[in-house]
What we know:
By secondary structure, the chain is α/β, with parallel strands linked by helices. The protein is built from eleven helices and seven strands. The strands form two sheets. The protein has a five-stranded parallel sheet with strand order 2-1-3-6-7, with helices on both faces. The protein has a two-stranded antiparallel sheet with strand order 4-5. It is globular and about 55 Å long.
Amino acid sequence: xxxxxxxxxxxxxxxxxxxxxxxxxxxxxxxxxxxxxxxxxxxxxxxxxxxxxxxxxxxxxxxxxxxxxxxxxxxxxxxxxxxxxxxxxxxxxxxxxxxxxxxxxxxxxxxxxxxxxxxxxxxxxxxxxxxxxxxxxxxxxxxxxxxxxxxxxxxxxxxxxxxxxxxxxxxxxxxxxxxxxxxxxxxxxxxxxxxxxxxxxxxxxxxxxxxxxxxxxxxxxxxxxxxxxxxxxxxxxxxxxxxxxxxxxxxxxxxxxxxxxxxxxxxxxxxxxxxxx
Length: 277
């Protein structure tokens, strides 16, 4: 059986599906017959390479059932287009939604894979008009494609960023209205949440979530119960991959992710927030 984007040998957990959803989530599959908190997000929520990611840490500390709907390389499109997961989230006591990047969604300029949202599928006529000299068949991943376009012409790239931000905001508003207001919006990133111009940030095209700023998050505030910002401390970041289960061939990829110490800080922040709700 093929598990999209998941190396079965990296952790002792079998990916699973729920209902009619075609998306693989972190297993084992959990029963939905008693109250639960649903955690939605990308690779960080899933906890790739991590034995006990922050949703599981919250469950251990609080005793409340926490179901992990994190999706490796997933973006908003995974959830907004999945009626099964939408219904599960509407029935939850609370939803925790990790802020995901604006590069991982289909928009007026390009289309991504329905479940592996990091995969670039095709460019629209509008994007081909802006970058007529580019052969888009050469790209398999959105971040690679975006980096190439920026390096080719930064001034033209402003239109791409503007479109991605508008599409992200509209899609997030749609998803939050679908799952309901009993939601905590979680910023979990080593990049501070502010309005610094994205291109002036260090590693500006490598940060996660990509292209998202504080003003965009403020627009979502009325649709959720709380916005929780978790930026790991320097000590947690310095721990790097310590405690991760990483296949030897994937050390570089793992080094770019938030490690177990960062997940512990996220869990602690969520535990405090949940006690106030």
